[in-house]
Every structure is written in C-alpha cells, then in structure tokens.
Automatic annotation (TrEMBL):
Residues 212-310 form the DNA polymerase III delta subunit-like C-terminal domain. Belongs to the DNA polymerase HolA subunit family. It comes from Nitrosomonas cryotolerans ATCC 49181. InterPro entries: DNA_pol3_clamp-load_cplx_C (IPR008921), DNA_pol3_delta-like_C (IPR048466), DNA_pol3_delta_N (IPR010372), DNA_polIII_delta (IPR005790), P-loop_NTPase (IPR027417). One of its GO terms (cellular component) is DNA polymerase III complex. Pfam families: DNA_pol3_delta, DNA_pol3_delta_C. Keywords: DNA replication, DNA-directed DNA polymerase, Nucleotidyltransferase, Transferase. This is DNA polymerase III subunit delta. Residues 20-136 form the DNA polymerase III delta N-terminal domain. Gene3D superfamilies: 1.10.8.60, 1.20.272.10, P-loop containing nucleotide triphosphate hydrolases. The lineage of its organism: Bacteria, Pseudomonadati, Pseudomonadota, Betaproteobacteria, Nitrosomonadales. GO terms for biological process: DNA-templated DNA replication.
Amino acid sequence: MRIKPDHLSQHLKKQIVPLYTLFGNESLLVIEAADLIRSIAYEQGYTEREVFTVDQRFDWSDLQHASSSLSLFGTRRIMDIRIPSGKPGKVGGKAIEAYCHALPPDTLTLITLPKIDKQNQSAKWFKVLENTGVMIAFYPIERTQLPIWIEQRLSIQQQKVNADTLQFLADKVEGNLLAAHQEIKKLALLYPTGILSFDQVKNAVLNVARYDVYQLSEAMVTANIVRYARILTGLQEEGVAPPLILTTLAEQIRTLIFICKGLNAGKPSAQLMTEARLWGDRQKIMLAAARRIGLKSLTLALLHAAKIDRISKGVCKGDTWDELLQLGRTFAITRPNTIPFTLD
C-alpha cells in the first residue's frame, strides 16, 4: 500500500505496520521519514535495532538468519535494511520476497532505497514490498513549490520572511534540499524568532544551489532566460561537460519540432503527446513552447545546436558556453499564435 509523505505522521499515530519501504532521490526527506518511523517505534517498545547495508559483498543469508532468530533481549526490534544501489540483484530479490512472505514477529522492518525507475518498480521483489507493507515515494521538491517548503520550515522555528526573500532563498538552495535544510537551521541559530529582513538572510545564506541539465532544459522551454542563465552558470562552475548539456537541449528541440510538424499536419495534440512520450504538466509546457516559437525558429535552434557541437569539438571557433546561452535566448522570442494550443 502506498501513502503520500505528508500522510505518514497521521498514519503512525493510528498504527505501526510491520514493514515500511521508503524510496526516492531526495535523501533529506527519506532520512526524516525514517527517523520519524524509528522514533515512534521506539516509543512503542521497539528498542533493539539491527542495521543491514546491502552492497556487492552482502550475504543475504545474514538477513534470513537474523529474521529467524529471536530478539537478543526478548524485546521488539527494528530491522533497518538499506539498499543504496536500489538493485538487490536476482539473489537479493528472491531473499526480499521470501522475507516479506514470512515477516519476523515483534519486528518492524524499514527498507530504504534510492530513486527506482518505472521498469524496476515493476520487478517482482518491488511489487511484493508494495503489497506487503506501507510504501512511500519521495520526489524532488519542484521549483515552484520550493518557496512554500522553505516557508513551512521557517515557521517550524517561528521565523518568517517576505515573498521576495523567499524567492531569493529558493534561488540560492535550488536542487540541494539537504543544504537548504542546513541553511534554514543556520538562520535559527543566528537570529531570534520573528520576521527576518532580506539583509539578515542574504548575509547568512550561502549559494548552495545545485542544478542539473533537466532543470536547464525546463528553463529553456519555458522561456525563463534569467533562470536559464543562472543554471547554465551553475553547471559550468560544477564542471558539467558541454556535450551532456547540448545532448539534452537538442533532444528537447527535436521533440518540439516533432510537435510542431504534427500540429501543422492536423494531428490531435493528445496523440502527439503520447507519441512524444510526454505526460502530465510536461504536455502543456511543450505545447506552449511549440505554439510560441514555431517550426522555423526551432529548426534554426537545432542548426545552432549543431554549430555548438562543432565548437565544443574544436572544429569551429567560438565560445561553447556563450553559444549555449544564446541558444537559450532563442526560446524567449514570442512568435505569432499560428499553432492551436489545446489538449484534445
């Protein structure tokens, strides 16, 4: 059974089940959820704890032996199983299935995993975990939701900031939730409760933002050139290879060209979204970009990407990073509304 992360606290107040599985690439949220489960369990008498960290040398028979053994002190216990790779392998998968089919008595089992893609979520061992206990997926905090998340965290320590300061904080910590948590905690140590000024926050908070190429492509497609430039600079400072950036951006441009051609040919937009493998909010974002930019400009953008590729390989003269910035600016140009924008 799956529940949402914000329902965990209420769930634990009602009951504790024998098995919890936490997975996702937001380590802070996974850690906090695991801490909450262990804390509530401790209050209910689960005072003994065994930790198993699964790596390539892990012997799954150790888990089987521990599960069949009685608690050392005759108390309730927690079996804390951590699989950092998210891939238990064939032997591990079967061991997990067997473990779930015969959960040890007086034991709370807590399994933590990283992000699991859709293909691996269909694996038998993963399905058994989902059907046997409570499973919670933790997804990254979206950029639009980050100021709200920060505001909630500040309110816990009885501090407030205005909307502009929230945006400033979000820009400084985007993509690095663990560092964001640390910076918020720092504000509690430096300043008293109440309203914090912009200068107080600015003087205290470091620039700990961490970006990836997918955030860059999102900023490009949504024509947010200020954010695009900031992320591009961050990627450059982090030493991300330009070919990786260019591959991601070019793929987005090709998808937009596909959408434009399909719409011009009279294809239903819903059909195009399925063929392009676009889901949820991505559909509206990509349709809006196709409508705004147009096929001619997108074709020129793809030619520009090919030029940047040659520059990065030393075949042509130019500054790769400056050209990448200019490529992003292409998407800030508004074109006449010549393509219908509806989801059929």
